[in-house]
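Data card: per-record layout.
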Amino acid sequence: MTSDTFSQHSEEIAKRFLLTALVIDDELTIPSDSSAHGNLQNPTRDTLSRKQGTSSEKTSLRTLDVDRITQSFARQGMICGTISPQDEQSDYENLVRTAARADILVLDWQLNTQTNQTVLPLIEKILNNHLKNQLRLIAIYTGETDPENILNQIKAVFNEGDQIDFSGNDHYGIDLGAHRIVVYQKLGTVSTHKNLIVDEQKLVDHLIKHFANKVGGLISGLALTALSAVRENVYRILKCFGSDLDPAFLAHRACLPQPQDSEQHIIEQITSELYGIINDVITDQPSPAGMEAIKRWCDERFEDDQVIFQNPEIYKKGVLKILEYGIENQNAPMKAKNYNLLSDGFSKGQSSNNEVDLRLASLMCFRQVFTKSPKQLSTGTVIKCIDNEEFFLCITPKCDTVRLENPTPFLFLNLRSEKKGKALKLVVPVTENEFEIMKISMHPKDWRIIEFKPKSDSKYVASELSDQRYLFSSRTNGKYQWIGELKPEVAQSIAHSIGQRISRVPINKSEWLRREEKK
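The structure for this 519-residue chain is written out next.
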């Protein structure tokens, strides 16, 4: 399908990623086809009176047609399941386990009309379970008349999240970490927000737009497409790492000086294969972040065709030329020396002081470390001295940081907050939300050797958790905070630069000839 706008482009990416949905509602209706009801029984006086007493409720706006809503998800290529909670399901454990598998959750606000029990306890368990970082859209699809009150109750429980967003006059929503919660109202609801009232068959279209809006962007679209590609190519990975290789894996493990390293070795190979699959993403047409997507992005961002990088204003056509051919092109509408103005212009002045440039530069140098286990001191580890707040980069070869028996000296480069001057530089995440450009001091006089004692069980230098900080203790009891880990290729590049510097051969030659060489 060809996308005319960037929003539609993002929705197509979202559709590729979204696979499952779950509807939880205590009042579901099923099609009138008798085959859907199984064996029917003759009504008794008791069942007749019970049905008569609830007939007004069953025809009210609270009921949800199972067939209509599941078919609407099916049209978008998604599997949609439905659950009607029983009265005795007060702990919601089964519901939480099932909900953890769904990309989209559709919940009725009142799950028990007899006790007026809301879905809030269920939402709380879903957001706090072990999969709380799983990207998920939660839609409250209700007959309640006050959607803002619903979100206020949710905010009161979690005491976090952005302000309630009421944009475009078509939804109420709030972001809570990996989850976006939105509210829509069922047909027949008496509401002052007419655009919130949505038919079951059209609900899925609104939800896909919300999901795309949460993750929509050039980079995030590329990332989501890559993750979809990995999920679609699981067999290719398993084919490379089949069970027939188990004997070879065991032989490899048995031959290693540290047999437990064998798992990490295979993880590295799996990562390499994943890279091959993800690399195919950029060849897809249309590319998630290719020139066609960029043109649509600019169309939505710069409706008036004006992009302010400097004075005078540059029009969108000139910007597209920069993005397609580069700022070094002789026909570019701005000078290459003004590269620092680019991000601010693309963000319409919202990215001051190159904040996003710093974040991306850091992301491209440092690898993400999500594990809560102790950090290992190795090549590319950046640490900060607690006493004087100096920053250091470990360049001890990786093979010399493992299988340690005794206290071992580690070699470090000094990192300084100097933005000016020609030198190798890093953007260091000094705090979770603060980034700083630092110069890598290449002169031997600034190098440091610090001795650390390895852990006897793991035979490498490991950190200890203290006050939510990972700390390394030197042999002299100095404390050093773990800051981050450089990507292996970045650390190796820095080490290579040091090797080139050390390998320079000093010679005396004619000064006249030296000057001639510089011409």
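Known properties of this structure: DSSP finds 17 helices and 22 strands in the chain. The CA atoms of residues 110 and 118 lie 4 Å apart.

See the next section for split statistics.
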